[in-house]
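Thread: Modeling a multi-component assembly for a lab meeting

Hi all, long-time lurker, first post. My supervisor asked me to bring a structural picture of a complex we are working on to next week's group meeting, and I have zero experience with this. I have the sequence lines for every component (548 residues in total). Could someone generate the structure of the whole assembly? Inputs are pasted exactly as I received them:
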Amino acid sequence: LGLHRAGSVGSSHIVMAAALEAGNLAKALPIYADIILKPALQPDQFELSRELVLQELAGLDDDPRQKVMLKLYERFYPAPFGTSPLGTAEQLGALTADKCRELIKKHFNLSRTIFAVAGKYDFGDLCRQIETLFDTDQPDAQPDISAGKSAGKYLHQHHDGAQVHIGLMTPTVPVSSPDYYNAMAAVAVLSGGMSARLFTEVREKRGLCYAVGAKYHTLKNFAGIASYAGTTPDKAQQTADIIIEQFKLLADGISTDEIGRAKVGLKSSLILQS
Amino acid sequence: LGLHRAGSVGSSHIVMAAALEAGNLAKALPIYADIILKPALQPDQFELSRELVLQELAGLDDDPRQKVMLKLYERFYPAPFGTSPLGTAEQLGALTADKCRELIKKHFNLSRTIFAVAGKYDFGDLCRQIETLFDTDQPDAQPDISAGKSAGKYLHQHHDGAQVHIGLMTPTVPVSSPDYYNAMAAVAVLSGGMSARLFTEVREKRGLCYAVGAKYHTLKNFAGIASYAGTTPDKAQQTADIIIEQFKLLADGISTDEIGRAKVGLKSSLILQS
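Re: Modeling a multi-component assembly
Sure thing. I ran the full set together rather than chain by chain. Output:
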């Protein structure tokens, strides 16, 4: 069918996507229904997949920047929401194709699945086909998972390398809040390009590290502003101090210029995002 | 002015960019003319900048994936074209603000500079302003730098980590060639999403590594297809063998489906790129 497939597993969603010629849409959907409703999970394929995730997990040791961000989310969000989508070596070791099939049966919930199509297609035809393909006796929506405690505060993990990788995260409003755009603007003031505060204060004025930034990170009901800096051991404390100071200084006010830049930045990233 | 600045140094170009409100364009240009024609390079700022580049260079040890790609370009392209824009610690140690000023005077060439604006502006006014601001007695275009030899072949660099990082690169046509789109399609067949050959053969069928891909990389007169794989020591040889095999198999033909997918992929990335 000439499908251009894509897929990803996040901490709260699994995404399956494809780009294809409009004329092939009706032929592609039954394949996706099959993948979603009746995953084969053949033993040899399952073993290969587990091997790959274990490799990816081990590979994090060669990618300390990603590792520190995964650790940060894990400690910041109330358990189990911050859990890394990769899991742990122990969890992966205990997984079998049967357990996986059971998980899918219990927790993949079509009543909470979003289906989106963009392009040239007939809305009525598409809805009829989707309703036929996914007409299953799936259980109703599961109750929401209840949130535990977040680990929070400090974690120091030893790492043999020339650098120190710092991750910092502070709570803010989730995407559903009326203050969502205020939070986004605050992050843009901290970290929107070379004129933003973290870049100017940490990098340009003090030369503390070449990589520093902040971003808005959200799950459905929780959100935070996460900051990353890669620096050297002798400059790590000052880097952390200045980042925290810059987070606090946001409360003292933001200039008209900064808000102007933040708006331009947010608008252009909205227009240019795919 | 609420400028949203951006800048980068590549192996053949320096890029300076800004996003701003259309009404501020005429006020921003004189500032850019100043930055380009009369860089201050104050001693303390210069030292800070050198420090940051040295830090970035040291930081590569914590980012073996980027490190292997920089080494790959360095050996693949004829000297000096593959030189990393970061330089070496020795070169950075020998650099002074005065030498830097001299380099800029000798080699920054306005007759070879491209100026681009998108948005709401008056073309005539803009051209007049640019001509006034940049009306200098700059030298004519310098002769092209002559290409030396490429180091090529194998390089093994020791690395303490759980993974082996493999970089492979083979010559192809540069962007000016009539075969450019054929080269891009070939790369898309090798590495355009989850249905592409490298992903399928190296990852899905054999589980050799979770990260594998190829990309087209070009300078003005030279280009190559570069491949990266991150794998484990016991699977490194087979990973390299299969990648090389997949590069060779391209010559045996490409199916209609694959070309269809490649076209869809290239078109959508063209539409979605900023």
